[in-house]
Specification:
The complex is a heterodimer of chains A (409) and B (202). Chain A has 409 residues and is an alpha+beta fold. Chain A contains 14 helices and 11 strands. With 202 residues, chain B is of the alpha+beta class. The radius of gyration of chain B is 18 Å and the shape is globular. The chains are: A alpha+beta (409), B alpha+beta (202).
Chain lengths: 409, 202
């Protein structure tokens, strides 16, 4: 064993005590936040003005704009939807590795089409793609593609797969719209774009691709939902911090060191009952602004990603709230009936625990394990030998292989 | 099973030896006419130069942490259950005992000269093939000498299937009487075992 645990016992002990005291401290402040929410839940013009000002003063502050009249709105949706289609996709990758036998990277997209009410086994897809050509491996400056690039490519493939499957499913129904199609992504809906990215063109291309896929989904009336399990976000807390802050006193420092820093919205909404969700909020982010701007047309204003929190625990089964953040495009957010359907269908799919079955399966279908990666490397080596090439691990990779297995003592 | 019915695909060979092989199947088939794989059923595969015959002696369906959680949570969603059965808990693993092989001229109740190859397809035998294979009783000795497992149960299932492949009640009875006599000869020194097998054959 390399890690000498005996050297860590004192630190781990101290960590445990620190966690306890921090928990108590956070619980106290969470109660304060709860009191603010309970006493001043109205969304006033002044509050909206403060939110706008805060956003202007500190662009990177993770706030949100409430869409309803109250911050403590609740709506219940846990009815049975006898027939529905749930589609989920996930991806995994092997990043390009300079030390490997040769340069390549791989993406594997797993997806599942779960036809609730059919009684039939779902359709499962696992689609690997190998990237090895120069134009795939290197960017315009001749630099090897980064993990960030591969991650973005993976997101695009996931999204395109979901749109393809939703379109095919609706076509298989002969265009009949009576069966809802809910499309699930594990994580936020909007693609992640590195803050301060210096390549605006790339960022725009990313958003445009996202808009195209959203339009495809909208055309077949599929409901896209980004599912964030146990969210750590604090969008609503950032709003609460502004309630007692006079407009003219809003400064960058006050915004960054507000009274509820360190808390999460989950603590604020843990009283949601199973099947209940909060009101809707539009998160402030550069990506959302880009999405709004790029999706606007001459006839239609731009769309914005919107979210709510929902308790996905099952009535009578889970005593503690199991909060998820559900993200959706604005055209879904404007239809509470669609959100009701999506929330009910997703909640019914949360088995065996409060997490969607389809997302767990999509992850399983996508996952490339270490053993599979080793098998692929072996296959690549064999093909190289067959073609008169000598596969050669770097000395560094070779040495790591030697030391990978546990030592005897 | 139909007289000359089409062979049903059971699965493909995962690993093999001359004495036994393991087959992977996508699922259990339980149609009105077919119960596949079935304990004691005679199956065949096309070896490199010979057809190899075997008896299904065990069928295993694996579990994992995910399916255990679903069971513990009392999940009864039929789509999830079918997903686990048809998409996840695969392959269904079938253990086969090699009991003979055939060339163009005859069937031999001996171990095949070579085992089947990985991914060779395994098929069920129809009644005509089953009758032809079980005309003589020499294969019983191979089953009785099998190293492990519920050998007697496999033998009883195989003999019942072989009898059922005969068209008339008389022929079925005659077949079982002949097989019983052969067993009596082979198990002359183990009467309690013989008694157990014969009781199950009645």
């Amino acid at each position: 064993m390399t890690l000498e645990l005996n050297r860590l016992t004192r630190d781990v002990d101290q960590m445990g005590r620190a966690m306890t005291s921090r928990r108590e401290e956070l619980a106290g402040r969470a109660a304060e936040a709860g009191s603010v929410l309970a006493s001043q839940p109205q969304v006033t013009k002044e509050l909206l003005q403060k939110i706008e000002t805060a956003r202007r003063i500190d662009e990177w502050r993770r706030g949100a704009v409430p869409l309803g009249n109250r911050l403590d709105e609740r709506r219940r949706a846990d009815f049975a939807v006898p027939r529905a289609v749930l589609i989920a996709a996930d991806g995994s990758q092997i990043f390009p590795d300079r030390s490997a036998v040769t340069l390549y990277y791989l993406l594997n997209i797993g997806a599942i089409v779960f036809r609730e009410g059919s009684g039939a086994a779902p359709a499962c897809i696992s689609q690997p793609t190998l990237y090895y050509r120069d134009e795939e491996l290197y960017d315009a400056d001749g630099q090897l593609r980064t993990e960030e690039y591969v991650g973005a490519l993976r997101n695009r493939l996931e999204l395109a797969t979901l749109a393809d499957l939703a379109v095919a499913e609706r076509e298989a129904m002969g265009g009949d719209l009576s069966t809802p199609i809910v499309v699930l992504i594990d994580g936020p809906l909007l693609p992640w774009i590195r803050s301060g990215t210096d390549n605006e063109q790339d960022a725009r291309a990313e958003i445009d691709f996202f808009i195209t896929q959203m339009q495809r989904l909208r055309a077949v009336q599929a409901i896209p939902i980004g599912y964030i399990d146990r969210p750590r976000s604090a969008y609503v807390l950032r709003i609460l911090e502004l309630i007692d802050m006079p407009l003219e006193e809003i400064t960058r420092d006050k915004l960054r060191f507000g009274p509820f820093v360190g808390l999460t919205d989950g603590q604020l909404f843990e009283s949601l009952r199973p099947g209940e969700r909060t009101g809707l909020f539009v998160p402030n982010s550069r990506a959302n602004e880009r999405y709004e701007a790029r999706s606007a047309t001459e006839d239609m204003p731009g769309d914005r990603i919107t979210f709510c929190y929902a308790n996905m625990a099952r009535q009578g089964r889970n005593e503690e709230a199991e909060l998820a953040r559900l993200e959706m495009p604005g055209w879904v957010a404007g239809r509470p009936d669609l959100i009701d359907v999506a929330q009910s269908v997703i909640a019914a799919n949360c088995e065996p625990g409060p997490f969607p079955y389809v997302l767990a399966r999509a992850h399983e279908l996508a996952l490339v394990t270490e053993d599979e990666r080793a098998a692929l490397d072996d296959l690549v080596s064999q093909i190289m030998w067959r073609n008169g090439l000598t596969p050669q691990l770097s000395t560094k990779a070779w040495t790591k292989q030697l030391t990978r297995r546990p030592r005897r003592s | 099973m139909e007289e000359n019915g089409n062979a049903i695909e059971v699965g493909r060979v995962l690993r093999s030896s001359t004495a036994a092989f393991t087959v992977g199947a996508q699922q259990l088939i339980a149609d009105q006419d077919a119960l596949t794989p079935r304990l004691g059923a005679l199956i065949k595969t096309a070896g490199v130069r010979n057809n190899i015959f075997g008896l299904i002696c065990n069928v295993t369906i694996e579990d994992d942490a995910f399916v255990r959680q679903l069971v513990a949570a009392g999940v009864d969603n039929p789509v999830m259950i079918e997903d686990q059965r048809q998409r996840r808990q695969v392959p269904v693993v079938i253990e086969v005992l090699a009991v003979g092989y055939a060339d163009e001229t005859a069937i031999y109740h001996r171990l095949p000269p070579q085992p089947p190859r990985t991914l060779d397809m395994i098929y069920t035998c129809n009644n005509a093939e089953l009758r032809r294979f079980s005309e003589r009783h020499d294969w019983l000795r191979i089953v009785l000498a099998a190293p492990a497992g519920p050998v007697d149960q496999i033998l009883v299932a195989a003999l019942r299937a072989a009898a059922a492949a005969r068209p008339s009640i008389d022929e079925q009875e005659q077949y079982l009487i002949g097989a019983g006599r052969e067993l009596a000869r082979l198990l002359a020194l183990d009467l309690s075992r013989l008694d157990g097998i014969l009781r199950q054959l009645r």
